[in-house]
Amino acid sequence: MPVTDVIKDLDSRTLTITADFAAPLERVWQVYADPRQLEKVWGPPGYPATVVEHELTPGGAMTYYMTSPEGEKYYGRWDVTEVSEPRGFRFDDAFTDDTFTANPEMPVSQNSYAFAEHDGGTRATYVTTYATAEALQQVLEMGMEEGAREAIAQIDVLLAQQ
Questions:
Q1: Which residues of 97-150 form beta strands (DSSP E)?
Q2: Percentage of the residues of the chain whose pLDDT score is greater than 70
Q3: What is the predicted pLDDT for the residue at 1?
Q4: Are 68 and 47 in contact (CB under 8 A)?
Q5: pLDDT exceeds cutoff 80 at 37
Q6: Which residues constitute the domain of residue 55?
Q7: The domain spanning residue 122 has which CATH number?
Q8: Cβ neighbours of residue 26 under 8 Å, at least 6 residues apart?
Q9: Activator of Hsp90 ATPase homologue 1/2-like C-terminal domain spans which residues (predicted)?
């Protein structure tokens, strides 16, 4: 398992996940820069992602949906705010309806994905911040931590295949 640390901090409204990959920085970057690779790792196992739009540039968007084993679709959207290839990017992540319009009943998170060379591979630090501690608690109760761990573990499998 590549996840080495998880910190849930309700006071700062953040979930921070650290993961180490046995692959060069540029290779890990490609997982996020290539929509077909991202589809293989975005979302937990059994909920494959389909990327509809993928523009990993400031002001760009990534729209997607995940499909459950029962065929139910869950829609989401990234609004990219900053990109520093291959060192990371920032984006706002929202639950949406099937037109990729944000669901006002669900929290929006601000995300920072940072990649750095570490012990001959790459360390990824994923920081997700919510507007309130209650919003963070809501997504934790929905299983976000376990889903993120499982999704990140899929990156190791993808990296080993190529």
A1: 109-118, 121-130
A2: 99
A3: 67
A4: yes
A5: yes
A6: 3-161
A7: 3.30.530.20
A8: 86
A9: 23-159
